[in-house]
Here is the input.
Amino acid sequence: MKKVLAVLLASSILSSAVMAQEVLKKIHISGTRRIEDATVMNYLRLNEGDEISSDALDEATKTLFATGLFSDVQITMENGVAQIVVEENPIVHDVYFEGNDKLADDVLLSEVMLKPRTIYTKSKLQNDAARLLDVYKRSGRFGATVEPKIIKQDQNRVDVIFEIKEGDETVIRKINFIGNTQFSNDELKEVLITKEKAWYRFFSSTDTYDPDRLNYDKEMLRRFYLQQGFVDFEVSSMVSELTPDEKGFIITMVLNEGVRYTFEQPEIKVSLPEYQQDASLNKLVAFKGKERFDSSAIETTISNLVDAFSNKGYAFVDVVPTFQKNTEKRTVKITFEVNEGEKVYVDRIDITGNSRTLDKVIRREMKIKEGDAFNASKLRQSKTNIEDLGYFDKVNVSTNPSLSQPGKMDIAIDVNEKSTGAFNVGIGYSSYDGLLFDIGIQERNILGTGNIVNLNAMVSQEEQQYVMGLTNPYFLDRKLLAGIDLFHTTRDYEDTSSYKASTTGGAVRMGWNYTDKLSQVVRYTLKQDDVNDVSENASIYIKEQQGKTMVSMIGQDLTYDRRDSRLNPTMGYYLNFGADYAGIGGDTDFFRINATAIQYFPVMDDVVLSLRADGGRIWGIGQDVRINNRYFLGDASLRGFEYGGVGARDKATGDFLGGDWYVTASAEVTFPIGLPKEMGVKGKLFTDAGFIGAPDDVNRNDIYYNDTLRWAVGTGIVWQSPMGTIGIDFAVPVMKEKYDKTQVFRLNFGKGF
Here is the structure.
């Protein structure tokens, strides 16, 4: 009996399945307006003559919905005829943003999927609204709201409107640390990129809440503790708590510092037979036994070893550090294993992301070329070179096995371009120039060629200066800097020397590097100098120089720079030697040399000692040196004295006459004064000393002059403000002559914001 029932049930199911299938005789499509019927048929994949089941019709319905082209799909079948009725999704006519003041329309439009002439769907609209909220959260506005709306237009089109209430920025009210015993809260806050809200951060966004930045801050803390010897350090937890008014966050980080470790005596194991007993390799290790553990010293050692073996001809050396931690002794033994890596050559170098910058501008910064042996050290230097261009806010360099050439490697360089143009406007004040106004335009990558164009105008109470320049850092596709400058300057010396002066001309220059540290620039300058508006009461030595002269001059600068930073050096030294000869045509003949030497010493954290020496000498050739080519000592060159206040002065008129040579020396210590480091305010103690010689063409009986040492000591502050560098100096002369003009207070207010 059971068997009979089973057979009958199976027969019934089979009969139903057969009855559910029907031969497709014809397909009829309705509801399409802008979409072709052939497009619908292509998605359906149904053909006349096929046997169609109800499951197949359901699957076809789902397929049409999945295209995103339709808001409704109905498929029925009767007597072999499939009736397909669709309702098309509308097309987006335009997208509008209302209420957005902090983020521009083009920024928001780049974040949404719905754009003009795309297909509208409700899911896209909802996703775009959520995406815009994320954008505002990343910019620190967690109170923002986005309400999407649509307005129907004719021809099945819609306008999409996002009504936005941006709200206030959600700032970081407080950052708390729990578990830190080795370092204070203030010391750890200096490590973080995220900062607490403060009045002086009006030009910064580091005090707005950003989860991604906070995650990076955890890594910054880990690096800091590893550099201080805390091998087991970890951030156990991090909690972000929104304040009751929903306008700020309180961040709490729980730290597990662990204990401080020291290095054991390091060891180097080399698999290359000829270097296994090379004791000189130990000099490349950046640390010694019993020193505090410092992760940066390990990285430096690896770099030193890779570079050293690369210079010995091993381009494929592999340096792997192994760690042996002794928790009882609190020591770590590092063994550097040096092995010859597999020989690999570069097949392709692919560059992406540079929509504006030409490929060759990036390729010429590469230390490694296609076809070269792969060298990790040169690849790291290439990445640094590209970053130093300043054209990109992101440079990613990766390597992959070549798909076309087995045994070779491809290098992929992905860049994210940033704005390379700058428009600067500045208002400032100088004790010497008075109130000044500065405006400048610069493009450092014009038309993506890497060439630099700059226009600048500076107007003050005493001086007006206009400069236009063009620089090509790769002239003739070689590592040659070539440039041209045009300039016009007028200067009022009536208060100090009873005359005015102007200079108009141009210069061409070319420069090159002998090494990464040694460079040279040669130049030719043609200019017209004009000494005018000489007062009737001026010195006779100034009256006799009234008029215009043409200067045709060649010159050069040789520079050796071993500073760790050009902007904020803390160690290293800088040497410069310049020479100029005027007399290749024109009506002014002289020879001039100048030299500068600066040494920086890191005394302790954030305390830097700098020693500086400057000197110059000018000789007239067959004629006296004109006043506009002489040296004037004081103000910035010798603090504690007015500009030109040291040196020869006419006894009868008091006019400053300058000198034909000078020598200065200074020592300065900069140090923090207790304010947050990010404010960029430091204190300084300094001492300046100098000599200056009298002009050769004056009667010593007519002038005040003494070539004895002048010396001043002082203190001050320097602020790297958003408006430029602001410096305040108080200097007191220690050694001076009674006729010198002193200047106890000196203020320089930067040029640019």
